Amino acid sequence: xxxxxxxxxxxxxxxxxxxxxxxxxxxxxxxxxxxxxxxxxxxxxxxxxxxxxxxxxxxxxxxxxxxxxxxxxxxxxxxxxxxxxxxxxxxxxxxxxxxxxxxxxxxxxxxxxxxxxxxxxxxxxxxxxxxxxxxxxxxxxxxxxxxxxxxxxxxxxxxxxxxxxxxxxxxxxxxxxxxxxxxxxxxxxxxxxxxxxxxxxxxxxxxxxxxxxxxxxxxxxxxxxxxxxxxxxxxxxxxxxxxxxxxxxxxxxxxxxxxxxxxxxxxxx
Length: 269
Prior knowledge:
alpha+beta, single chain, 6-stranded mixed sheet, 7-stranded mixed sheet, Metallo-beta-lactamase, Chain A
């Protein structure tokens, strides 16, 4: 049996002799099914043509991508701390060299997810690295396409993963959309890993907030206000998004606050 992967979003499906008939993540109005229809690739076929690529972002934080791109093309972020290592979001493939390298660095304490578009190969990553707990907000469990006992749902608005590293559910893009606060990052000024909950735009002095990015569906002003208020209470000066260009090196908290005010003003004008 093969593990089938959605070519559009990178979601993994439970092992089967035949490819799935549909991808619920792509059928959701926040994503899309291509005009040519849903397409799939078997995990073993992907491994024959793709590999992981590493990029150090700052001391203690590394980006791991799949080359060439698969699905949405996001990277996963490996966060190393004195209390253990955490993986933020996932990619559609983990190669053997990356598995071995992570193990040499001490393995993982947890895999944390921002939202369903980046669940992708989370079960594969967990299994390959020894059964790492997958921390996934309970609000978005319906979008899991490859069930596993390794998935550990969490509730509420905050979960301390390790000392100085915490998940915060901000909502907006999905009900369970979350960010990861790393208080020791950016030389102690704090780092926020954001997924698509807070989205760094082309002008990297600003961010945006959307219900759907590919379909350009905005969030209501009240949701943007709530997200901005929650973010204001977090400790961060730097933001890392899902792609290398989605990065604010300094002043990120002010960028979020300023962007929220602009967004709300234009919605209500």
